[in-house]
Amino acid sequence: MKIVSPENFNSSILVQDIMTRALITVNFATTALQVAKMMEQGGIGAILVKDNDNPVGIVTDRDFATKIAANNLPLNTAVENIMSSPLITINHNEPISAAAERMTSKKIRKLAVTENGKVVGIITSTDLVTQLTK
Fold first, then answer.
1. Which pLDDT score is estimated for 10?
2. How many helices (H) and strands (E) does the chain have?
3. How far apart are CA 127 and CA 19, in angstroms?
4. Which of 122, 91, 121, 125 is nearest to 107 (CA)?
5. What is the CATH number for 38?
6. 75 with 68: CB under 8 angstroms?
7. What is the C-alpha separation between 111 and 100, in angstroms, rounded?
């Protein structure tokens, strides 16, 4: 068994080194059902919501549990009604320890990654855990 220690969380490893660059985005009017099908087909847990090409929020698998299921909302609910907003981001060249700290302080599991103000990827708590086990 590998022991996890702060040393494993190498500060020289940057967000851009472990983030996912493939992004799936939808607009405000996309329904919860459409997003759920996209997540299932893509094997992903988050989709960014854009307004006129500007990322404004994120819909996660957790949003389905806490907003759709818990409130018995119909599956044709628009994502603008269930997305988490404002979008919480981190710069691509920050150390992964900063991403972990931001996720912990905001109580979230996914961060949009920006470069020069533009969203270029996503980093998740799973990415961080995977890095720790290397």
1. 62
2. 6, 6
3. 7
4. 125
5. 3.10.580.10
6. yes
7. 10
